Amino acid sequence: MARILQADYLVVGAGALGMGFADALVDHSESARVVLVDRRSGVGGHWLEAYPFVRLHQSSCFYGVASSLLGGGALQTSGPEAGLQERASQPEIVAYYARVLDRLVGTGRVDFLPDSDFDGHRTVTSRVTGEHVEVSESCRIVNAHYLAPTIPAEVPPPFAVSEGARVLPVNDLVGLEDEPSQYVVVGSGKTATDAIVWLLARGTDPDAICWVRPRDPWMLDRARVQPDPSIFFGLAADLMQSVAVSSSLEDAFLRLEDAGVMLRVDRSVAPTMAKAPTLARWELDELRTVEDVVRHGHVRSVSRGRLDLSDGSVRIAEDALVVHCAADGLKNPPLVPIWRPADITLQPVRAGFPSFGAALAGYVEATRTDDVEKNRVCGPSGYGNSLQQWAAMNLLGTRNAQAFSSEPAIKEWADGVALNPARVPPGHPGSAALDDARARLAEHTAPALAKLAAYC
Ligand SMILES: Cc1cc2nc3c(=O)[nH]c(=O)nc-3n(C[C@H](O)[C@H](O)[C@H](O)COP(=O)(O)OP(=O)(O)OC[C@H]3O[C@@H](n4cnc5c(N)ncnc54)[C@H](O)[C@@H]3O)c2cc1C
């Protein structure tokens, strides 16, 4: 017999989205009882298994839960990013979510079931004891893993590995004892760029790195994605203006590059990937020192001294270490309404800021009763991947922001939450740059949305 859990919500997944939703829901409802469940042994989701040298690619203040500012809003005071907001490291993120859980449990309204699998219906099974627990029919299921990223530590490389070839997930770079004569980094995303920057920082010769980049990525200049309203609204205005006057989606990205918003490693190659993580210019300089770039499609197999790819083969050193950075990362399943009869499926709302989207969904769930109305004010925007998906994400994200911002109570809440990048905090003195950005947004947003709709 399964034990019955008394709860109003079963939140499946205690990563950024589940924690962000639960935090706002508990704070803005009078009595909601929440059970958080995760098959991992703690809260924080994929960060628990992330490579040790990872940091947030965005400012800490844009990540976490609404009730507690990750990193305290501090600026970096030294190093190549001095003046930019702090970016939390993996241990800092994990410790932060542990403190958030303590606070939630301390309310007396939240329980956490670690090491436990949700079966897709109403039952949770402990991976340790095998015990089953059930939630009642009235308990709402919150799917907080719909867009959970896959990471190299947890999925095998998407290519065959012959005996004698050395392939390691990115996590295992740290602590490596026998240095190879060549590192072959496989992947085009943030994990690959992190691995290369880390290798270079510890003295690896750039010529000892081969970068297998099936696609070239567009990335956002980190200095432009900062919580100062003059900076963030300037970014949004440049985005809308560049798209509004563009003749094609590719042209829009080139205009964004000219406006200092988008970065690419190689200016002679047209990127086809736009997950658009942020990158600092010093990192870009470092990445550009790696000249051995392989663009023959995806790796099919690795054998000693050789890579076979979808569009050709290349020789690598006999002792080469192939670094697996080729997990999917962000997911792109079809977007679904956040509120459906069967569940609440958490997804980003404003483009590119998943923690804010989860908190907003929690706030809306706590303060409204009608699911149709909740979906009207809080729609999903997903993640980017191809240029077209980036266009769709920005189109939906902007429409969603227009919808929730036109609701006075939601706008007031969102203006007080640091996770929301596009806010002018109460008491902000204003600036000429902010006025200029707002004027350009007013002029260019409608034509830009029409272009984005045509591009995706
Ligand atoms: C390396 C990296 C860096 C990133 N940096 C940033 C950043 O700087 N800023 C930003 O905004 N985004 C960033 N992201 C994007 C990412 O979307 C967010 O980090 C976010 O943490 C994802 O949270 P999530 O809750 O969707 O997924 P997860 O963190 O994966 O959490 C989902 C949880 O659900 C659990 N689960 C799934 N199915 C079940 C089940 N059936 N039963 C029980 N438990 C289940 C999993 O165990 C998991 O812990 C980054 C992503 C990666 C990979």
Report on this structure:
Helix content is 32%, strand content 17%. The chain is α/β, with parallel strands linked by helices and 456 residues long. Among the domains are: 3-148 and 332-386, 3-Layer(bba) Sandwich (FAD/NAD(P)-binding domain); 150-216 and 279-329, 3-Layer(bba) Sandwich (FAD/NAD(P)-binding domain). It has a five-stranded parallel β-sheet with strand order 6-3-2-10-23. The protein has a five-stranded parallel β-sheet with strand order 12-22-13-14-18, covered by helices on one side. Helix 1 (16-28) packs parallel to helix 2 (90-106) and helix 1 packs parallel to helix 7 (354-367). The longest helix is centred in the C-terminal third of the chain and has 24 residues, at 432-455. The mean pLDDT is 96. Flavin-adenine dinucleotide binds next to helix 1, strand 7, helix 3 and helix 7.
